[in-house]
Amino acid sequence: MTLKYKTLCSVAALGALFLLSGPVAAGDGASPMPRKVLLAGLAAEGASPDALYTARWVLDSSDNRGLPFVIVDKKDARVYVFEAGGHLRGATAALLGLAPGDQSVPGIGMRNVADILPFERTTPAGRFLSQPGRNLAGEAVIWVNYSEGLAIHRVRPGNSQEQRLQRLASSTPGDNRISLGCVVVPVAFYENVVTPLLGNSYSVVYVLPETRPVHALFGAYQVGSSLP
Which regions of the chain are under pLDDT 70? Predict the structure, then answer.
């Protein structure tokens, strides 16, 4: 059987099993964090203005609906994982889709890997309700968008592992554009941050655009440069 893009990108074919649970009630960490504290913590991680804007907008609007949330900053190739109330649980470099762009090619999730051209390997921007699950190999992943073959998963062992680890360790985001479209994070980060917070229920993932202003996708108000 020919391997499909969804399998390699950690999204199973239609017969794969989801590990799902219903929306969780807001619990510890769900009380909104003061914006000054939130933004100061992000700034300490070197977060971009776009990531700072999005984090503040999420809490101002309660758009995450009491769920943990993730900000994927494609321009900086960084991932930020938050508890429901805005506490930053962790941040890391990430590998992203090879090609720039904010849209997925229709039907790409079911295409053969060999048929996906380099310019089609994008990480789509947007707001996604994510769910934990497993691929056909039994690997635990976080589905971000099932139909588009988009998931958060750890660096996998294999011939390409060393090269990918080197890319994650580099100080420049340009060489982090290598995946078929998925968001790939270090193993330790996945096991210590992603799994405990996102691995048991729904969460919200915000993938920042790279071809248009972030406020055109998430909210409409402007955020000042100073902390509130």
Answer: 1-32, 106-120, 136, 158-162, 220-228
- Residues 33 and 211: their CA atoms lie apart, in Å, by 30
- Report the residue count for the chain: 228
Q: pLDDT, tens digit, for every residue of 120-140?
A: 678 999 999 999 988 767 889
Q: Which residue has the tokens 């720039």?
A: 100
Question: Are 139 and 88 contacting, i.e. CB atoms less than 8 angstroms apart?
Answer: no
Asked whether the beta carbons of 145 and 125 are under 8 A apart, the reply is no
| Distance (Å, whole) CA 159 – CA 132 | 26
Task: Check if the beta carbon of residue 80 is closer than 8 Å to that of residue 152.
Answer: no
Report if pTM > 0.90.
no
In a domain, 215, yes or no: no
Q: Which single residue is written with the structure tokens 């017969």?
A: 15
Residue 163 lies in a domain: yes
Say how many Å lie between the first and final Cα of the chain, rounded: 56
Q: Distance between CA 22 and CA 168 in Å, rounded?
A: 33
**Is 206 within a domain?**
yes
**Please, are residues 185 and 154 in contact by the beta-carbon 8 Å criterion?**
yes
Domain span including residue 118:
5-15+28-210
> How many structural domains are present in the chain?
1
| Structure-token match 């635990």, residue found | 140
The contacts of residue 19 (CB under 8 Å, 6+ apart) are 131, 132, 133, 134, 140
